[in-house]
UniProtKB/TrEMBL annotation:
The chain crosses the membrane at residues 23-40, 47-66, 128-156. It comes from the Eukaryota. Keywords: Endoplasmic reticulum, Membrane, Transmembrane, Transmembrane helix. One of its GO terms (biological process) is response to bacterium. It is a multi-pass membrane protein. Pfam families: Reticulon. It comes from Ambrosia artemisiifolia (Common ragweed). Residues 14-197 form the Reticulon domain. This is Reticulon-like protein. The keyword Endoplasmic reticulum applies. Coiled coil: none annotated. Its main location: endoplasmic reticulum.
Length: 197
């Protein structure tokens, strides 16, 4: 179990950025995401056009750099070997494998086992995502996510004792509600039992 917020966030460079310990990196992420949000959301610029125009500009610069380098006896552009290692592909495949199996497990619990508790949690989660998503478009939702990730861990670390106290109270209430819901669900006949009869 992690003892600090920094450890809970992985204790590496990402944790330093999220907790504003690397103020330069945090500032770059905040300013960069704000500029991109203003460009795409308020400026009306298209993401696909932005990516295509930047790649086009990069390709043209590299082409003229290579041509001028051969004419002026200068070094060629320093382009690294772009090669994805087999190990990184296997790691990504393992992570996807776990995620896909978890989704299939939840689907099995709902469709085959008739687990009403899982059904209610999945339906409520998807409804909540849909409800929140109806207020924003995708770019704004990503921007809000970046802002929350740069503020919530920082504020939690500052006020951890007070937040933990409130979260403990909410957790107790949620556990009591969950126990009552479990009692109600146990009184309902199971879908699986109905199929076997």
């Amino acid at each position: 179990m992690a003892h600090t917020v920094h450890d809970a966030l992985g204790g590496a460079a990402v944790a330093d950025i999220l907790l504003w310990r690397n103020s330069y990196g945090s500032g770059v992420v905040l300013i960069g995401s704000s500029v991109l949000w203003l460009l795409f959301e308020r400026g009306g610029y298209n993401v696909l056009a932005f990516v295509a125009n930047n790649i086009l500009l990069l390709v043209v610069i590299l082409f003229f750099w290579a041509k001028s380098a051969s004419l002026l006896n200068r070094p060629l552009p320093p382009i690294p070997e772009l090669d994805i290692s087999e190990e990184s592909v296997l790691i990504a495949a393992d992570e996807m494998h776990v995620l896909i199996n978890r989704v299939f497990s939840v689907a099995h619990e709902i469709a085959i086992d008739g687990n009403i508790k899982t059904l209610i949690s999945v339906v409520s989660s998807l409804w909540l995502i849909s409800y929140i998503g109806s207020f924003f478009n995708f770019i704004t939702l990503i921007y809000v996510g970046v802002l929350l990730s740069l503020s919530v861990p920082f504020l939690y670390e500052k006020f951890q004792a007070q937040v933990d106290e409130k979260l403990f109270a909410v957790h107790k209430i949620a556990r009591s509600i969950s126990a009552k819901v479990d009692i109600i669900l146990k009184m309902m006949p199971s879908i699986h039992k109905q199929k076997t009869q």
